[in-house]
Amino acid sequence: MGTRVQGPGAVVLALAAVVAIVLGGVPGTAWVAVPRAGAQPSGGPTTTATSTPGGTGGSGGGGAAGAGSADAELAIIMDASSSMLEPDEGGTRLDVAKRASTELVESLPDTARVGMLAYGTQESDAPENHERGCADIRELAPVGAVDKDRLRGEIEGLQARGYTPIGNSLRAAADMLSPDASERSIVLVSDGIDTCTPPPPCEVAAELADEGVGLAVHVVGFRADEATRAELECIANTTGGSYRQADDAAALSESLQFLAQRAIVEYETTGTEFQFADTADEALYVGQGLYRTTVQTVSELNTAAVPEKFLRVAVPEGHRAYVAVTAVPRIDLTDTGGGEGINVRLTSTNESHHTCTKDVASSQTSGGGWEPPESTVLAFAGQEPGDECDGTQFLVAAQFNTAGLGAAEEFEVEMSVQFEPMPGNEVGTWPEGHPGSAPDAAPVEISSPQPVAGGNSFANAAEITEGSFSDAIVPGEFRYYRVPVEWGQRPVVTLKTGPSVRETNDTLYGAIYGPVRQQLGSEYISYRQEGEEMTVASDRPVNFNNRNANVGGERVSIAGEHYLAVSMSVFGNDVLGVEQPFEFAVRMDGEPGEGPDWEPVNEPGPTPSSSPIGTDAAPGGEANDDNDDDNPSVVASAEEDSSLPGWALPAGIGVILLILAGLGLWFFSRGKQR
Known about the structure:
Layout lengths: L1 E3 L3 H15 L24 E5 L21 E7 L7 E2 L2 E2 H15 L5 E7 L10 H5 L2 E9 L2 H9 L9 H11 L7 E7 L10 H10 L4 E8 L3 H14 L2 E5 L5 H5 L15 E2 L11 E2 L2 E8 L12 E5 L5 E10 L12 E10 L7 E9 L8 E7 L12 E8 L8 E12 L28 E2 L10 E2 L3 E7 L4 E8 L4 E8 L8 E8 L5 E9 L4 E6 L22 E9 L11 E10 L42 H10 L6 H26 L1
Parallel strand pairs: 3-6, 3-8, 8-9, 9-10, 11-13, 12-14, 21-23, 22-24
Antiparallel strand pairs: 1-2, 2-10, 4-5, 6-7, 13-20, 14-19, 15-18, 15-20, 16-17, 16-19, 23-30, 24-29, 25-28, 25-30, 26-27, 26-29
Helix pairs in contact: 1-2, 2-4, 5-6, 6-7
């Protein structure tokens, strides 16, 4: 099962793929090992890969994508035994291995923690030299932050001379790894069997496996014969690692494109930690800003059986609240649908009076590189002057259901809470709402695009302006960008991609979101042999009075930072970790106009509280339990809950002032008498 690439390219590809397994979780530039199952590079043979069911490798579509963490450690064992002096294309087998290893070092992410050792470099393989030769194991670089210059120099200086002490080398490599590392991995490259047993290498592998979870040995067999392959596969299988066979030198050029395979950079939630309450009585207040949590979903076809989770919001008088919940489904790169999906339903109820309104919003989002995580946005107005509905008494109920989309499990959730102040009579001087029938926007010309690295969430979106840009993405990934949009402007984005780097049917998806994360427009393009282009735009210019035009107008009624999200589809068992370049250009149609100055707060919100939280609460800090005097809603609540009559507080203050005045006169008169 899998592919077999031959020759130096095979070694490069096999090394890259195996090392990808253990570096798959390094944020930002991690690797992912996902071979092209059932397919062959054009014009060349293939690389065989095997792994145990419980191992970290695999030949399916997912491999170890997203596994591991930034403190994962890797030790690479190089074979410099005398058999590596055998002639090969371009020199010897060692020359091929040197070139492959140097390519590997060049491709390592800067965040990788990697070390290297080699055996057979100093002692000959003469029979009388057996004891010294089997101890000939030299550390080329200790495990730590990757030092590419040192590794390149050490690799270049390798000379093949001696024995093949695989078992002893495995022990030495294990000793290089920190016991505190989240993942410990060894990559072994060898062209022959162990010539120094005992200890038998498979028994050593079993010892290492018994040391605990997190230590796996991945093996590359270079021109390995049947006996060698059996021994090397035993090492990999015993530790839950992967074995990869590399043969002759026919497909180096086809292999090099896969050296940059990396894991997807997953959505990163941002904000103050909070928890939904299981009952309304236990619900805490949240304030303005960003929050994050995890939720346990259910899988119920009967939506009435989906349990509700609760929180509270105190909407300041004269404001409108927006609660945007972004559920982040798990991504399964082995699933052509991309993995799990989730339905989110939000309901707000004002509990202060039975005549107060009840608002409902719901949406469905699915993960895995088809569409970026969708936000369910609930909007509701606070207390107006003379209104009997108390704005501090809003209860928000949330339901999370995976029925028909996947199994019930725990998901990460990001939430944005915003309070928009309602303007006064100046609303009448602003342009009327647009009905949303704007003609299709003309494509934006892409000219001299500037490189930009998109963020991995709304909060981490890369800042851009009007202009042309370039980026790259791998299947299952999301890229986010933020761009300012003025009143009266209509955001237009054109995205363009070249032929599929993976040489398969790929799909690129693009969407524009408003400042409170409501989707304004979306498009997708499918491509393979030739590049394609698409243009996405809102259906009207951004105008405050759009909210009064029709139901769809509310989404396009807030100016400020808008978001562009790009994602790439996942299809079957094709190789996944290859970056697909794309270009895009941004243009604002329309002249800037008039409207309020308010923009959402994209900072961590105040700590959840049992008391209402005002808009002046410090972002990311304590709420108002210790600062109630600064929060009018809390002071009002304290007055209402007091057992004293309403006149008691001002009367008490008056008495205190009279006493202070009397003391002042007494002090002054004493001073004059002296």
